[in-house]
Amino acid sequence: QITLEESGPTLVKATQTLTLTCSFSGFSISSSEVGVGWIRQPPGKALEWLALFYLHDDKRYNPSLMSRLTLTKDTSKNQVVLTMTNMDPVDTATYYCARRRQAAGVSTYYFDYWGQGILVTVSS
Amino acid sequence: DIQLTQSPSFLSASVGDRVTITCRASRGISSYLAWYQQKPGKAPKLLIYAASTLQSGVPSRFSGSGSGTEFTLTISNLQPEDFATFYCQQLNSYPLTFGGGTKVEIK
Q1: If you measure CA to CA, which chain A residue comes closest to B40?
Q2: Is the Cβ pair A108, B89 closer than 8 Å?
């Protein structure tokens, strides 16, 4: 059974650093076919992709936030950690982690399993 | 960045209806498009990937088509559990981007 779960603070103050942990089970990110990504969604708004671990140790970040984001992983604990610095009230959102899976037979991928999300509120 | 424009942003439909949602990309993305369904307070659920491949376990009333810059998600015989918000996502190039969403409500 594949599961992902986000954990971390639900309330941070402006200028602080947010650290979120994605704990997963049922798969390994040591596989070249699998990665873990982070996506967020402000209340009532659309989804926004933040960052992605893939192909073992490769990372990709959304350029609009790249200077503030850092991805790390602990393969032995099956965890991926997202750090976002200098938080602002506009960063208030539900943060999701999701499994990236390479599609079989075609050169594309998708996010097939998602955590339930964690609502992070940034106070001014 | 590749912009994805979904239309309509909102639609009202009845159980049993056939519904079509369009997603247009600002430049060609081949078939590197996925569709997700999201219900209030829940995480998105993958419906379709590679523009037209149905994810395992998703009912066959959902279908996707298109390539290049124009894509459609069709729900035939709309069911009560289908009322939700739908998002397209391009996976052709970074940054990955999502459409603005289409909310399907009960008429």
Answers
A1: A44
A2: no
Confirm if A20 and A115 have CB atoms less than 8 A apart. no
- CB atoms inside a 10 Å sphere around CB B36: 27
Q: What is the pLDDT of residues B46-103, one digit of tens each?
A: 999 999 999 999 999 999 999 999 999 999 999 999 999 999 999 999 999 999 999 9
Geometric angle at alpha carbon B34, from B30 and B40, rounded to 5°: 155
**């965890």: which residue's tokens?**
A79
Mutate to test the interface with B, among A39, A40, A67, A111 (most CBs of B within 10 A): A111
Q: How far is CA B91 from CA A39, A106, A123, B86, in A?
A: 14, 12, 33, 16
> What pLDDT does A28 receive?
86
Q: Is B80 helix (H, G, I), strand (E, B) or coil?
A: helix
Alpha-carbon span A58 to A79, nearest angstrom: 15
- Please name the residue that has the structure tokens 């040591």: A30
Token pair recorded at residue A46: 């659309």
Q: How many residues does chain A have?
A: 124
Q: What angle do CA B100, B7, B61 make, to 5 degrees?
A: 100
- DSSP 8-state class, residue B55: P
Residue B66 in contact with partner chain A when CB distance is under 8 A: no
